[in-house]
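Example with several molecule types.
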Amino acid sequence: MGKGLSNRVAIIAMGCTPFREHWDKSADDLLVDAVTECVAGAPKLALDDVEAFWVGTQGSGMSGQTLSKPLGLRGKPVTRVENYCATGSEAFRNAAYAVASGAYDVVMATGVEKLKDSSFSGLTATWPPSDGTDVEWTAPGGFSLLAPAYRERYGLTDREMRDALTHIAFKNHANGALNPKAQFRRAMSKEAIEKSPRIAGMLSVMDCSGVADGAAAAIIVRAEDAHLYTDRPVYLKGMGFVAGPGDGLSTDGYDFTTFPEVVQATAEAYAQADVTNPREQIDLAEVHDCFTPTELVLMEDLGFSERGRGWSDVLKGSFDRDGDVAVNPDGGLKSFGHPVGATGLRMFYECFLQLRGEAGERQVPGARLAVAQNLGGQPGSCVAFTAVVGNEAP
Amino acid sequence: MTVATTKTITAYAVYLPAFALAVNDFGADVRDGSARARSVASHDEDAVTLGVEAGRRLDGALQDVPALLLATSEPPYLDKSSATTVHAALGLPENATAVDLHGLRAGAGALRTAFGMGGLAVLADQRTAPPGAAGELSQGDAAAAFAMSGDSSAPVRLRATASSTVELLDRWRAPGAPHPTVWDERFTANILAESALSAASRALGEAGLERADRVVVACANPRAAAAIRAALGSDRADAELEAAIGHTGAAHLGVLLADAFDRSRPGETVLAVCAADGADAFVFETGEGVETANRGPKVREQLGGRTYLPYDRYLRMRGLFVVQGPNRPDPAPPAAPPMARRREWKMALVAARCAECDAVTAPPARACAGCGRLDTQRPESLRDRACTVVSVTEDLLAPGPDGPAVQAVVDVEGGGRRSVHVADPPAGGVKAGDELWPVLRRISSTQGIHNYFWKARPMGTVRHG
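Resulting structure tokens for the full complex:
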């Protein structure tokens, strides 16, 4: 376990484009928009005051020039990172370390994805040449394995399982409907959710997150410097990251009802943040609801529900915006959309707004402590990031 | 290599695919269980995978085989050998040669050559007629495999062979053409029958027989086949089987012969004639052990339990009727160096077992997926092990010619886990706990490269030995 950066760095400004089918914008445009908004949020800083940059993208650019070219950065270090769908949080993580190390005073983490320039359905990726023996799971295919395994393990009826998944989609769409930057800004009836066309296994279109274009950015400084730039900084309280060995798909044992990598990363983040009772202590959580069963399993992996009880807590409304933990109050990947490289930073963006009391209609009253949980890969073989952020100064 | 002087068959096996087609009318009922049908390979089967299924049923009879001959009229490649793919999947020794024979006469050629070398003859074919053609339901897909040796105690002995060759435009297909074209069979039948009877007469003479106890005739020309059967005194058991599977191209002689052996007792004679571009005749004598020489299920047992297809599904599986699916990129073709580096895994499903913690890692890797130790692994074949579904999905975003891809994560009996494509998924679907069996299939074909790997097929529909 790493030594952690608890209370050592703070976010002082963020920007996030609407997540959309941005037919009229390139990845460059989206980055410029997100960075411009971000810098505008820190009036005492100019872009040139930022000493180093990170840009996360899964496939919308190569190298640090993905950011330096559109911004016209001169003489600045820019690092491009990629970590599947956890790419955005990976940009944040590395930027945070750079500030904490003392190498820089002011850094920026950005993430971008331009998915809608492809006419393919769903996400695609380009892999290195191979022997052709790996099953090419589509994202819904891989994640759909969670639902039957969970239902089987905990003895749910088909109806109970369906109800839990439907409620997650219903809740996240209701939240997204209040969010002007969300891709889908319309509440969906449970009936409409269940009538949507099937995609994989139990999953229908309305169990899947939106494929969107978007970018997000954050300025990170040392915690002790944060008040130089803003009255309401958001502090990093804890952060864990795990790249799993993929053993869930390559040897027996894993049962598809949990993400062991998430459990490990979360334990590290909680330990750093002194979170011992997440259901009580955490006010809101932005979690990786790429598909509805993912959010269900995450409620247990994040310690919000006991094992096997996530589904009934979901149905009780425990994770609704006014529930015990407001989960995905911005709409989540489901409704806000999922431009891969931007998503992790978008999660921080909502935490940032909520912890500063700037979330408008969807504000979680009195929010003090939030979780941003981002993952990539697929059940059995994934990378997982969990952070705890709060608005109370160290 | 010594050339065998005594020519015998030590073991044989036939593989009939899971599907059959009895109708070629869109509105018609499938005529489930009809005695008149054609055998249909799944969309991901070809001469290689059919041949591997027949060949692997020979199991223990494959040790020290000096040569493999693959006969087909539908070779997956022209320049590249397909026999080598079968060789690799069967785990044959590196010093065994592997040779491809093409054309309708190739099955007889493979048998003759394998007898000469004491090798393994794999006859595998897929036959397709144009939709609506008169012969659409009278061709079929199948494979047969025969292990030859010089062991005089083997259950089947070759007593004589004879051939005749005639240059004749009977049926033909240029490279790349989807279907054969046929000359007026009233003209060609006479010439083929003459050739066949000439070869049969010489073979019987060499064997010192006037007639054989059983006669099988493989000829794609139905008029000729009927004439030859009548002249040689066939009891038409071969014609009856042919009606249930269709003429299976280069595999047909082998399938009919295997069926004749299936029905034989020790001390009987079998005359087998293949009439194509002339004729080849073989006279066999069965001996002790013929009842167990078939290492797989009997040929006729494989007719039961076939899934009879509606015509539109057959056309889709065959690629004759393409349905638009979601817009997804083509699967990437495999690359030669990684395929060569991981040949054992790709072709023979050899994973790795850790000497320290006993966990099986699949695909094989230097780090054990169980304990994480490096370089503690030894090879472990998963090819002939049942596996149990842990979780499964039907992916409509990844459709194939026969509907959505069914993909599962399975645990292998004795240890190990794989992600698999489910082959020949049953109508009722696949669920956690179901047992599957590894089968080599074409995963995809992109840029002219066929990506072969091991899928898994429901045990209930597998008739392995």
